[in-house]
């Protein structure tokens, strides 16, 4: 029962992490315009994401523009896109695999060892998906921080971390933690001992001695 509860907890955490990765990928707030120093512009807020850039007016109206061409984007942004999409696809595969190995499901009930191995395999894929999302968000955040502290970057073009980065970091952590819990349901190997050899029974004595 304890392993079943840990398995269910791991699946829920990994599923929430996967949903968070999807939300983070779709959000345009990967970085937001900084208002540090002399850059005091309160009329609008500028955001940039993986797919579009947005400007929110003081009235609350938001205008977004999708990036025109994929080839015109920076290679680092394209790599971040690829990693996040790969994390989503890996999470989808891990979702189906781990569901097959859940103890509460009736699939593959005839072979419990293979069933538990499927859950472990799904957990491993969840961990890989979380690592991909963590690398993508950390890489993007590092670029934002380096540009912010670069003295050659104009003050009015500096950006800070957006909310999508924090959601991505939390989602990646949940996916990896849930995958680790699923891996804890790995079946233990049973030590096989050689069959004991029985001693031959003494023949019953007939009371007759033969020479």
Structure commentary:
- The protein is an alpha+beta fold.
- The chain has a domain at 4-27 and 75-184: Butyryl-CoA Dehydrogenase, subunit A, domain 3, CATH 1.20.140.150.
- It contains four helices and five strands; from the N terminus they run αββββααβα.
- It has helices spanning 2-26, 75-101, 112-149, 163-183; strands at 31-33, 44-48, 52-57, 62-66, 159-161.
- The protein has a five-stranded antiparallel sheet with strand order 4-3-2-1-5.
- Helix 1 (2-26) runs parallel beside helix 3 and helix 1 (2-26) packs antiparallel against helix 4 (163-183).
- The longest helix is centred in the middle third of the chain and has 38 residues, at 112-149.
- It starts with a helix and ends in a 28-residue tail after the last helix.
- The model has no long low-confidence stretch (mean pLDDT 81).
Produce the secondary structure layout.
Elements: H1 2-26, E1 31-33, E2 44-48, E3 52-57, E4 62-66, H2 75-101, H3 112-149, E5 159-161, H4 163-183
Antiparallel strand pairs: 1-2, 1-5, 2-3, 3-4
Helix pairs in contact: 1-2, 1-3, 1-4, 2-3, 3-4
Secondary structure category: alpha+beta
N- to C-terminal separation? 67 Å
How would you sum up the major sheet?
A: 5 strands, antiparallel
Q: Using the 3D structure, state the CATH architecture of the domain at 4-27 and 75-184.
A: Up-down Bundle
Q: According to CATH, what is the topology of the domain at 4-27 and 75-184?
A: Butyryl-CoA Dehydrogenase, subunit A, domain 3
The proportion of residues forming helix, as a percent range, comes to: 40-55%
Strand tally is 5
Percent of residues in beta strands:
5-15%
Low-confidence stretches: none
């Amino acid at each position: 029962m304890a392993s079943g509860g840990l398995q269910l907890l791991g699946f829920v955490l990994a599923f929430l992490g996967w949903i968070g990765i999807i939300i983070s990928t779709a959000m345009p707030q990967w970085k937001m315009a900084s208002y540090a120093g002399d850059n005091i512009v309160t009329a609008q807020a500028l955001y940039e994401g993986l797919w579009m850039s947005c400007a929110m007016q003081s009235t609350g109206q938001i205008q977004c523009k999708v990036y025109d061409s994929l080839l015109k984007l920076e290679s680092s942004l394209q790599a971040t896109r690829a990693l996040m999409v790969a994390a989503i696809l890996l999470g989808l595969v891990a979702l189906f695999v781990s569901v097959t190995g859940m103890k509460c499901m009736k699939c593959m009930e005839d072979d419990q060892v293979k069933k538990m191995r499927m859950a472990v395999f799904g957990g491993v894929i969840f961990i890989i998906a979380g690592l991909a999302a963590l690398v993508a968000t950390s890489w993007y955040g590092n670029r934002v921080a380096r540009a912010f502290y670069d003295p050659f970057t104009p003050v009015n073009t500096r950006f800070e971390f957006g909310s999508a980065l924090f959601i991505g970091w939390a989602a990646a952590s949940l996916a990896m933690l849930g995958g680790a819990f699923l891996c804890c349901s790995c079946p233990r190997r049973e030590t096989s001992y050689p069959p004991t050899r029985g001693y031959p029974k003494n023949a019953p004595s007939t009371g007759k001695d033969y020479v």
